[in-house]
């Protein structure tokens, strides 16, 4: 499979497919999920009122709170003997949620993930090192099934054990790696410590996601490893990785919109926004059977757009996700995402992409501190130089983002590394 036909059809044809699948999905949840039936009845909506794509906005939203309320199986739309797999969110930022898949759902997921790999040029000759965690997290198994479906060779190493990751990079010669962007940077440190250089490995591309990352971070990974770094997006509730991903153009992520119907809504008014407008991305799963979700509010901030893509795919695109509304900092009235701070930090060559943002409230005022590790060269330099750099970064954050922050340069390797999603924000206000 080089490209699935559905990825390059006309908009009219896509809308017909989406409309048909939407109608089927709405009927399926109305008939089989009491929670959805009640939700629809409470606003006087019957499945017959949804006749096609244009009726999407009539449907009620689904939120994480709904999934918590119906935990664990209240949203399951088939008999439990049809469910072959469950995954669960880590629950680190709140209550755990569970998602359930039928055999057909796992199949569709493998297909969309295979498309994502094909989009970056992966084929049967490639060896893919899957360094996302395997288990309840969808990253490992999701990418695994996709690479295997494509016919590539999979190394299911999972996350962590970085020394072994490096050993495999050298010995098993993977050509593609899949992990979080922050873990990729950590692997570079481990490689360097072990005296390994990029000439000793065979990577040519990476499929990075599961956390927000900036364009500057992409450049840094591409420079350090001499590879192409591609963005992949997804969330457990909708399926896992493979909801959207970049192609060779590296300009926006093509959404697999024949399976996941996207919309952008205003976070405040919940009104749908047009192409090119920034807001929260909302998905309706239109092919899932086990646990379909209607207008699921992701809390992820981005824009939708269409362009004449070099890869000839016509699938709608989303911009790289700026961050989650949960992680948005409001500093004296200015909204900022950690990824924007990351982008400014990476303009400075004497600091590393390892940073943490500490938010606190002192005398009723929110304070923002940005801790960023300096590189070894700067660390051994004079204090005066370090202080000057702190001032320069403070100035850049203020002029680019319009907020004042206290910048603290930290010693190399002093900020904790993560094997999966990096922890960027420490919010002391909640304690
Ligand atoms: O992170 C699925 C995944 C695995 C995606 C591997 C890509 C690669 P969850 O653990 O449910 O699922 O977390 C989903 O992570 O709502 C976003 O806030 C964030 N996220 C995922 N991919 C990206 C990305 C997986 N490429 C949540 N850029 C989502 C920015 C991302 N944020």
Summarize the amount of helix as a percent range.
Answer: 25-40%
User: How many domain regions?
Assistant: 2
How far apart the termini lie comes to 51 Å
Instruction: Give the strand line-up of the largest sheet.
Output: 4-3-5-6-7-8-9-15-14
CATH fold topology of the largest domain: Rossmann fold
Strand content is 25-35%
Computed over alpha carbons, the radius of gyration is: 22 Å
Mean pLDDT: 95
Which ions, cofactors or small ligands are bound in this entry?
Answer: 5'-O-[hydroxy(phenylacetyl)phosphoryl]adenosine
Summarize the structure.
With 431 residues, this protein is of the alpha/beta class. The protein has two domains: 5-326, Rossmann fold, CATH 3.40.50; 331-427, 2-Layer Sandwich (GMP Synthetase, Chain A, domain 3), CATH 3.30.300.30.
Helix-strand layout with pairing:
Layout: H1 11-32, H2 34-42, H3 64-69, E1 83-88, E2 98-102, H4 103-119, E3 127-130, H5 138-150, E4 153-155, H6 162-171, E5 176-179, H7 181-193, E6 205-209, H8 215-225, E7 228-235, E8 240-246, E9 253-255, E10 260-265, E11 272-273, E12 279-285, E13 296-302, E14 304-305, E15 317-318, E16 323-324, E17 329-331, E18 334-336, H9 338-345, E19 351-362, E20 365-374, H10 376-379, H11 383-401, E21 406-410, E22 425-427
Parallel strand pairs: 3-4, 3-5, 5-6, 6-7, 19-22, 20-21
Antiparallel strand pairs: 1-2, 7-8, 8-9, 9-15, 10-11, 10-12, 12-13, 13-16, 14-15, 17-18, 19-20
Helix pairs in contact: 1-2, 4-5, 6-7, 7-8, 9-11
The structure holds 5'-O-[hydroxy(phenylacetyl)phosphoryl]adenosine (DLL).
